[in-house]
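Lay summary. Proteins are chains of building blocks that fold into shapes, and those shapes determine what they do. In this project we predict the shape from the chain. Here is one chain we studied, written as its sequence of building blocks.
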Amino acid sequence: MSQNTPNTTLIVGSGLAGICIAYELHKKQIPFQIIDSGVNVSTDIAAGIINPIVFRRVTTSWRVSDFIPEALKFYEELTAAWGNTYFKEIPIRRAFSHQQEVDLWLKKQELPEFTPYLKPLDEDDEKCNKVINTFGTGKVYQSGYVEASLLLKDALIWLESENYLRKETFVHADLDPETGAYHGENFKDIIFCEGYQGVYNPWFSYLPLETTKGEVLTIESKGLTEEESVNRKCFVMPIGNHRFKVGATYEWNTANTEITEEGKNTICENFKSLTKEDFTIVSQKAGIRPTTLDRRPLIGSHHIYKKLKIFNGLGAKGFLIAPLLAKEFIISIENNISIDKEVNVERYNRLLNKN
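And here is the predicted shape, written in a compact code that computers can read:
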């Protein structure tokens, strides 16, 4: 990369959000640098699940018909560029929790917006013996998972090889928010992709970013199917060699990344509601998701210091929604147009007077 110029964008954070922003800037040949402390407690631990359906009410995920094609294209591009396969497509078998869920599925499987994702129920689904089956099961397509830790590792190798990466802790107090100057360098924009650490950002502290802890187990089981993921109360995602990721827990308003016996027991109990197969625990990990009250990301510019921008709050759907939202955000910046109001931080301007 050439020496920094005033047209350079500075990205703070190299988790999923920062990676997606960085790759968009790279494709558009927009100069950038990325600062990261090397501590990641979200992307590196995430299960990376892509699921087009919200099971509780049998609804399609927000903007799913936009997000899935762009996400698949993004991960294919990374595979071509970096040499590893990141997205693994695998159907999800939903074990229904009650008859109402069955009735909703039957109603919606015929609707055009659901037909790409919901397999019409048949006798095999009703009698499926791959899970503890009380009310029957249904199958979801266009689903799978991203190998998050592998993607993060390869992204950091790429960033370093292109001289984009600065391994250091960003010090908010050293940034001049008006001029965009940081440690003697002037930047065109500073995009904060800090994950849960965004709660400590002094310029965007008014935003309702929440820290949501999640614990995940990796287990080994010879009896579980590896042909599909299964879901009820928890997800069970095959990752190869008779190993599965199982989770996840949700613990709101904490930044504690310690694994707990309570978390393990909760996941095991939920798992046992799905299957009677024996299993052994290989590992247990905990991460912190950056989430929001309205389940929409926080994207846009500071209300006063326009050089300061944020791309955060991706939540549990991050691996599905981040690629397209990063693309849309960079387009909005380059063309000086507003980002979609559903994600625009301007929706929280009413909170400014309370801070």
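What the prediction tells us: The two ends are 40 Å apart (CA to CA).
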